[in-house]
Amino acid sequence: MSILQIVLFGLVGALLITSIREMAPQIAFWITLIVSVFLFLIALQKLTGLLAPIEKLAELANVNVLFFATIVKIIGIAYIAEFGAEIARDAGVSAIAGKIELVGKLAILVLAVPIVTAVVQTVTHLLP
Amino acid sequence: MSLELHVIFQIAVVGIAAAVLSSLLKQSGRDEIATLVTISALVLVAAVVVTNISHLFMEIRDVFSIQ
């Protein structure tokens, strides 16, 4: 998939949305959603090729598997929360967008608790 | 995975057709039918989009191994 195709796809979507918005605002929202979904799918496709080598590197560097899985999960949560928040903000409901971002941040914090405790344990081991 | 431009054009055509039809029906005094046309167009579009969103979420679940 060449970058030109992807950019033009986004531009065609934007053109359609701007021309339909006055006629049927609800349908324009749906088009926004589906263009975002397709672009996100392409991003995921690129990411899958990137994630395997990084995992191999983490194995080589003897990084704990639990930490690596947690970080991948956190990245996923960040992407999906951003996606939902941007869609909601585009539809004109920034209150809901803010709540989606809040929930995403809290979910990331909950996932990060084991890593933080591990860091604290290491520090307390180092201290006499 | 290919860029499915035709899906977006389909949705746009459905939207334009629904808008034109409902405005015509409204001008000829059949407001109920105009509302029905709008709602059915929305349901049609929602069916297509929701299928794709579920596909996206499955993919995200696979890639980031969430749950």
From TrEMBL, chain A:
<feature type="transmembrane region" description="Helical">
    <location>
        <begin position="28"/>
        <end position="45"/>
    </location>
</feature>
<keyword id="KW-0812">Transmembrane</keyword>
<keyword id="KW-1133">Transmembrane helix</keyword>
<dbReference type="InterPro" id="IPR025664">
    <property type="entry name" value="Spore_III_AC/AD"/>
</dbReference>
<dbReference type="Pfam" id="PF06686">
    <property type="entry name" value="SpoIIIAC"/>
</dbReference>
<feature type="transmembrane region" description="Helical">
    <location>
        <begin position="65"/>
        <end position="85"/>
    </location>
</feature>
<feature type="transmembrane region" description="Helical">
    <location>
        <begin position="106"/>
        <end position="127"/>
    </location>
</feature>
<protein>
    <submittedName>
        <fullName>Stage III sporulation protein AD</fullName>
    </submittedName>
</protein>
<keyword id="KW-0472">Membrane</keyword>
<feature type="transmembrane region" description="Helical">
    <location>
        <begin position="6"/>
        <end position="21"/>
    </location>
</feature>
<dbReference type="InterPro" id="IPR014211">
    <property type="entry name" value="Spore_III_AD"/>
</dbReference>
Automatic annotation (TrEMBL), chain B:
<dbReference type="Pfam" id="PF06686">
    <property type="entry name" value="SpoIIIAC"/>
</dbReference>
<dbReference type="InterPro" id="IPR009570">
    <property type="entry name" value="Spore_III_AC"/>
</dbReference>
<keyword id="KW-1133">Transmembrane helix</keyword>
<feature type="transmembrane region" description="Helical">
    <location>
        <begin position="37"/>
        <end position="58"/>
    </location>
</feature>
<protein>
    <submittedName>
        <fullName>Stage III sporulation protein AC</fullName>
    </submittedName>
</protein>
<keyword id="KW-0472">Membrane</keyword>
<keyword id="KW-0812">Transmembrane</keyword>
<feature type="transmembrane region" description="Helical">
    <location>
        <begin position="6"/>
        <end position="25"/>
    </location>
</feature>
<dbReference type="InterPro" id="IPR025664">
    <property type="entry name" value="Spore_III_AC/AD"/>
</dbReference>
